[in-house]
Amino acid sequence: xxxxxxxxxxxxxxxxxxxxxxxxxxxxxxxxxxxxxxxxxxxxxxxxxxxxxxxxxxxxxxxxxxxxxxxxxxxxxxxxxxxxxxxxxxxxxxxxxxxxxxxxxxxxxxxxxxxxxxxxxxxxxxxxxxxxxxx
Length: 135
Hints:
By secondary structure, the chain is an alpha+beta fold. The protein is 23% helix and 41% strand. The chain is built from 3 helices and 6 strands; from the N terminus they run βααβββββα.
């Protein structure tokens, strides 16, 4: 059974690469964040609207394991699944190069919510994410 609940296809742009001709490590964080934001949009949640309502999801911890580099022009797919651990939502995110489906990066992103300036549970996320949570 497929563990992923969301996926997004993207393509490496020239300016994301370093002198070695591979994607600079910092750009993978952008890919991961863009995937999470697009997932939120797909569930009907607006990141901007959350902020207006006093809800700010923030990254508390991020781990990335680099497996295979991407190069300019490579197409890739960013996939995620989700777990809840206490007040944290943990996004498990993997990126695969489309040409051969080799794993590029394996990441875990722990997020928490700051609600009206205080670290707190987010009942909106509890409701919206309920159908997507994996054991």
